[in-house]
Amino acid sequence: MGIVVSLEPHRVKKEWQEEKKLLQYLRVEEIQVTAEKMFVPVFSQFHFPYSFLEEACLDMALEAFLSGGKFSRYVENGELEFRFKMQAVLAINKITTELHDFMSGWVEEPAAKRSDLKDIVEVFITYWWKRGLQAGTQRSLLRL
């Protein structure tokens, strides 16, 4: 009789180690500065720095960065393979929607128009996703 071994713990451990290595390319201060530059003009009446909104931006930027880093394994000749582009768009969209819903649900400010906020959140998340993709690609090139 054979023994059934679950590979899930090994996969989770390997994924965690990969994320840990990717995070070496990221500085929290850089996320804070980027978030402040993008969101303070939208939330003029709201004290953005050191708030729960900044914390949400940090969390979602980190998630986007790691997502981009994971997609870096599908980069060939400096381009993301076509078959993975739609998956990447869906991943970015999911994170963007989550951050936008959080922000629009907590802050009632006339200056923060919903469409403007959605656009800025999308730019912010896409920026950090691409940074993660670059970091992962750079890491892969260094291994070669």
Structural notes for this entry:
It is built from 5 helices and 2 strands. The protein has 144 residues and is mostly helical. It has one domain (17-143). The chain has a two-stranded antiparallel sheet with strand order 1-2. A hairpin with a 2-residue loop joins β1 (75-76) and β2. α3 (52-71) packs across α5 and α4 packs across α5 (114-143). The longest helix has 30 residues, at 114-143. It starts with 7 loop residues before the first helix and ends with a helix.
pLDDT < 50 stretches: none
Strand order of the largest sheet: 1-2
Structural class given helices, strands, pairing? Answer: mainly alpha
The fraction of residues in strands falls at under 5%
Sheet with the most strands, sense and barrel status: 2 strands, antiparallel
Mean pLDDT: 86
Rg measurement, Å: 18 Å
How many separate domains make up the residues?
A: 1
From the spread of the alpha carbons, the general shape counts as: elongated
From N to C, what is the helix and strand string?
HHHEEHH
Share of residues in helices: over 70%
Terminus-to-terminus distance: 42 Å
Number of helices: 5
**Total count of strands:** 2
Protein name: DUF2521 family protein
Organism: Alteribacillus persepolensis
Pfam family, one: DUF2521
InterPro entries: Uncharacterised_YbaK (IPR019667)
